[in-house]
Design brief:
5-stranded parallel beta sheet, 12% strand, 11 helices, alpha/beta
């Protein structure tokens, strides 16, 4: 059984929310159907998509990824479906698109809700027919691609407002996974902070450690930018702090704002974690202690 602290899937955490997510992930990965991953920006949606691929039967094939918010109407067909030589100015050679490159593998469409209406229609056709046409070609090409899409905004609301096609949502939202925000992951903040600190030390050569008051400040913060923000803050602390000794809370960004006397002590934070950890363990064991 996987250790809840292990990072073999890139999903580090022991909170109930992460344990549940990993369980759902293994079930979803074993299936052949499209997946829609929802969650706030920075919460780790691409990590979840990569884990789905790594645990699937397609793991030996390519995992492709694209940020749909960066695809204009002029680029979307060329990027997703490829183009023939001479199809447009600058097309001096032919090029396979992301769907072809990910044939028999997985294609991750990040921020799929940002696609234009025209791009949505093109994507729907591929999902329906299993075929693509390179720009400048009339010959269809069969592709076998598992699509994993992600969004940080409710696509159901976008359907109501006419910004997203309902028929495309039905094609993408076969299996849905919800990535919890960091603020709902309890003491995973401390676990992740230690992990990111160790990584930053190895990259910078720093020998400094976080002060207890710095750790409690990290545990107390609400993390609107989620895991990505935590990683960036820890990297900043390691870089801007002393090379040796301890890094105090004064090195934290001004957005933290809280003073040390407003924070719980490290002993209080640990006691709170132990209570929640034991409670969660008992719940998973059906109330049995031995």
């Amino acid at each position: 059984m996987q250790d809840a602290n292990s990072d073999d899937l890139g999903l580090l955490g022991r909170s109930d929310a992460l344990v549940a997510l990993r369980g759902t992930l293994r079930c979803v990965a074993a299936s052949p159907y499209p997946v829609l991953i929802t969650g706030e920006s920075g919460s780790g949606k691409e990590l979840v998509a990569r884990a789905v691929h790594r645990l699937s039967r397609r793991a030996a094939r390519r995992f492709g990824a694209v940020n749909c918010a960066a695809l204009t109407d002029e680029l979307v067909e060329a990027e997703l479906f490829g183009y023939a030589k001479g199809a447009f100015t600058g097309a001096v050679t032919e090029r396979a698109g992301l769907f072809e490159a990910a044939d028999r593998g997985t294609l991750f469409l990040d921020e799929v809700g940002e696609l234009s209406q025209r791009a949505q229609a093109k994507l729907l056709r591929v999902l329906q027919d299993g075929e693509i046409r390179r720009v400048g070609e009339n010959q269809p090409r069969r592709v076998d691609v598992r699509v994993v899409a992600a969004t940080n905004r409710p696509l159901d609301d976008a359907v109501v407002t006419g910004q997203f096609r309902e028929d495309l949502l039905y094609r993408l939202d076969v299996l849905r996974m919800v990535v919890p925000p960091l603020r709902d992951r309890g003491d995973d903040v401390m676990l992740l902070a230690e992990h990111f600190w160790s990584r930053a030390q190895s990259l910078t050569g720093s020998r400094a450690a976080p002060a207890k008051s710095t750790l409690t400040a990290l545990a107390r913060y609400h993390w609107p930018g989620n895991v990505r923000q935590l990683e960036n803050v820890v990297a900043s602390l390691v870089v801007h702090g002393p090379r040796h000794g301890v890094v105090g809370p004064s090195t934290l960004p001004s957005t933290f704002g809280a003073t040390e006397h407003e924070l719980p002590t490290l002993q209080e934070a640990r006691a709170s974690f132990e209570r929640r950890f034991v409670s969660g363990a008992l719940a998973r064991a059906g109330g049995r202690r031995g």
